[in-house]
Amino acid sequence: MRDYDLHHHGDREVGPGLVDLAVNVRLPRPPAWLRDELASALDTLAAYPSTVDAELSVAARHGRPPSEVLVTAGAAEAFTLLASALRPRHAVVVHPQFTEPEAALRAAGHAVSRVILSEEDGFVLDPALVPADADLVFVGNPTNPTSVLHPSSSLRSLTRPGRLLVVDEAFLDAVPGEVETLAAGVPGIVVLRSLTKTWGLAGLRAGYVLAAPDVIERLRAVQVPWSVSTLAGVATVACCRPSALEEAEKLAIAGEADRDYLVSRLTDAGVPVVGDPRGPFVLVRVPDGASLRARLREAGYAVRRGDTFPGLGPDHLRLAVRDPATTDAFLSALRKLL
Fold first, then answer.
1. pLDDT over 90 (residue 2)
2. 243: helix, coil or strand?
3. Is the dihedral of CA 194, 200, 202, 205 positive or negative?
4. In a domain, 5, yes or no
5. Which residues make beta-bridge pairs with 164?
6. Among 70, 234, 315, 324, which is 20 to 30 Å from 222 by CA?
7. pTM of this prediction?
8. How many angstroms separate the CA atoms of 56 and 125, rounded?
9. What's the rounded Cα separation, in Å, for the pair 167 and 103?
10. Is the pLDDT assigned to residue 1 strictly greater than 90?
11. 2 in a structural domain
12. Cβ atoms within 10 A of the Cβ of 248, count?
């Protein structure tokens, strides 16, 4: 099995003076109302944090009982908890996707099989590729870095007795209407959510797990005490309010328009977009991608290399969706380099 740098992430691409197209956080900072709520909680930091209010808010947001919610220090913590709490006989990660699930499983001593989706098929999920004896399966939806949104029916077809299917929905709130979500609850499915992408909270680490009560208790048993900070709990409560959900939907609609604009400009420049992007980023394939990435960096733009994702190579680059003005400036630089 080929080795990949599973711990490489987009933040390692950015640097002083570079326009950031490598990190998939949509906002450059949390909105003012959220910053105000966080600031108002500073005087409470002498007390140990509690996630009770946050879990009640998440439960109400998704119409699930609190016993099916675990608030985490970002969705990434959930991968470590799952790898620590579970003892899979045959763990499978569907690639290309976010590499932390495989990294966490391997760090916990589990053997991992990879299912590599086909670029020729647009990286669309083929449930038949997942081995029948797999008892722990990880899938992203929409998937990072391909931006492909898999039908919920395809994901449901992967469930079976004795198998736990983990669906990483870290970018699902960036899809208008949150279509294809499984957050309402399906037996045998664990859903992971993140608040960092839409709300500009990557530095705060805020996310949660939705699963059956027995799974939640197993994860809670291995979670480090007080791993979720007071401010992360405050942010979770705030971002689950109806007003915040309405704002997130507007951001998703605006982001979809910005993504469509980016795709059209890339197409005009002769740069093929791989697959059917539905998330706040797109995957492209260009000749001599490693060299182009370096030259883009010299021109002032940081983009995400693709060759650290199993199933991709050095000619793949991931581009975060930004506003049209940023896209226009980037495409101007890209055309010159091409």
1. no
2. helix
3. negative
4. no
5. 136
6. 234
7. 0.96
8. 33
9. 16
10. no
11. no
12. 19
